Amino acid sequence: MKPPSHVKTPEQYIASLPADRAKTIADVRALVNKHIPRGYDECIVWGTIGWTIPLSRYPDTYNKQPITPMRSFAVKSSAGSQIDTHTSVVAA
């Protein structure tokens, strides 16, 4: 389930989902936002809600872009399940 191309914010992403999926994703998003350490930016990354490390916090990236491939945590609604999560840990 790919979000429409006009989706640019987590709020728009959630609004684009069917009601049952929107509630589940909104609940998980709220839980992550409550517990994620300060300094992460919430955004849409690769068609999912993700939390990235901004350049203002970690400017020395190989491509001069915020650390988005890491997507420290991302949630999305897909055809087979309500929540897919992606997690990674990067040590520098």
N-to-C series of helices and strands:
HHEEEE
**On the 0-100 scale, what is the average pLDDT?**
75
Cα-to-Cα separation, first versus last residue: 34 Å
Largest sheet, order of strands side by side? 1-2-3-4
- Residue share in helices? 25-40%
* Uncertain stretches of 5 or more adjacent residues: none
| Tally of contiguous helical segments | 2
Largest sheet: 4 strands, antiparallel
Q: Quote the beta fraction.
A: 25-35%
What's the total count of β strands?
4
- Structural category is alpha+beta
* Domains (count): 1
Radius of gyration: 13 Å
Overall 3D form: globular
What keyword list fits this structure?
92 residues; alpha+beta; four-stranded antiparallel β-sheet; 2 helices; 4 strands; globular
How is the topology of this model organized?
Layout: H1 10-15, H2 19-35, E1 41-45, E2 48-52, E3 73-78, E4 81-87
Antiparallel strand pairs: 1-2, 2-3, 3-4
